[in-house]
Design brief:
By secondary structure, the chain is an alpha/beta fold. The chain has one domain: NAD(P)-binding Rossmann-like Domain (Rossmann fold, 3-Layer(aba) Sandwich). Helix content is about 45%, strand content about 15%. A seven-stranded parallel sheet has the order 3-2-1-4-5-6-7, with helices on both faces. The protein is globular and about 50 Å long. The structure holds NADPH dihydro-nicotinamide-adenine-dinucleotide phosphate (NDP) and 2-hydroxyethylsulfonic acid. NADPH dihydro-nicotinamide-adenine-dinucleotide phosphate binds next to helix 1, helix 4 and helix 6.
């Protein structure tokens, strides 16, 4: 069994790769940070009896995505599970003050990157006659919150694409699942606040957020249902978070 996880150098993607490896999958890990990919690959190979392929590219660049997918050796092409995870929020502010470069980074990564990956890998799955695409959305793709405008829009797009892919993949027997987490403590907020670790820590102050491992568990659970069962959509939050805007803090 083979799982390809985009954005496996940190957070949810990394925890997901580890869990699939633990369960005997051979893993294809991707990300821009080459050193992290290499270190993680060595860790996975040393700890689990599996094989690892690293693909170092930026999901925003179609030519890099195509070159990376074309470089996958034949015996790695029987991909059972694709986790479309690579993504980010950059900045948080009202639309009238929006920083265009931040918007473009989010749109290019969360929507266009996910599309590039899917466009290159879905035909392979169709050719193989099996596969499961897991799209990582967000609670921000189900609701909107103050100052979240463009990030929320990108995750609403992921939600729409998840539903659309399920229709398009239906005749091919390929499963499609959307996983929509609330607050998960990863590098996400550090990226959103452009390296301001103190501000990022405050996001989770006084509450117990989800961990990357919680989401990995959910992804693995969805991917390990019997052949006739497709998990369409999962919203998962910390117990102290009711929705995108209501949380309880100590
Ligand atoms: P992290 O910042 O910890 O990890 C993000 C991963 O995405 C990294 O591996 C990063 O790798 C990769 N990535 C980002 N941009 C690119 C790019 N242009 N090309 C290739 N890879 C890229 O965040 P999370 O693990 O929290 O986020 C994972 C997903 O979960 C995202 O889609 C996010 O929107 C979603 N999510 C997160 C939530 C949270 O609260 N943390 C809640 C809901 C959804 P590298 O930098 O090496 O390229
Ligand atoms: C990440 C969760 O609430 O910051 O998608 O948008 S949130």
């Amino acid at each position: 069994m083979i799982a390809l996880i985009t954005g496996a150098t940190a957070g949810i993607g990394k925890a997901t790769a580890e869990l699939f490896a633990k369960n005997g999958y051979n893993i294809i890990i991707t990300g821009r940070r080459k050193e992290r990919l290499e270190e993680f690959s060595s860790h996975l190979k040393a700890n689990y009896k599996i094989d690892v392929l690293t693909l170092n590219f930026d999901v925003r660049k179609l030519s890099e995505v195509e070159a990376a997918v074309n470089s996958i050796p034949t015996d790695w092409k029987k991909i059972n599970v694709l986790v479309n995870n690579a993504g980010l929020a950059v900045g948080l502010g009202p639309i009238q003050d929006g920083i265009i470069d931040d918007w473009e980074r989010m749109i290019d990564t969360n929507i266009k990157g996910l599309l590039y990956i899917t466009r290159t890998l879905a035909p392979l799955m169709i050719q193989n006659g099996f596969g499961h695409i897991v799209n990582i959305g967000s609670i921000a793709g189900k609701e909107v919150y103050a100052n979240g405008n463009v990030y929320c829009a990108t995750k609403h797009a992921v939600d729409a694409l998840n539903k659309a892919m399920r229709i398009d993949m239906l005749p091919h027997g390929i499963k499609v699942t959307g996983i929509h987490p609330g607050m998960v403590e990863t590098e996400f907020s550090i990226v959103r606040y452009k390296g301001d670790e103190e501000r990022a820590k405050n996001v989770y102050k006084g509450l117990q957020p989800l961990t990357a491992e919680d989401i990995a568990d959910t992804i693995y659970w969805a991917a390990s249902r019997p052949a006739h069962v497709n998990i369409s959509d999962v919203i998962i939050t910390p117990t102290v978070q009711a929705n995108a805007t209501n949380t309880i803090r100590k």
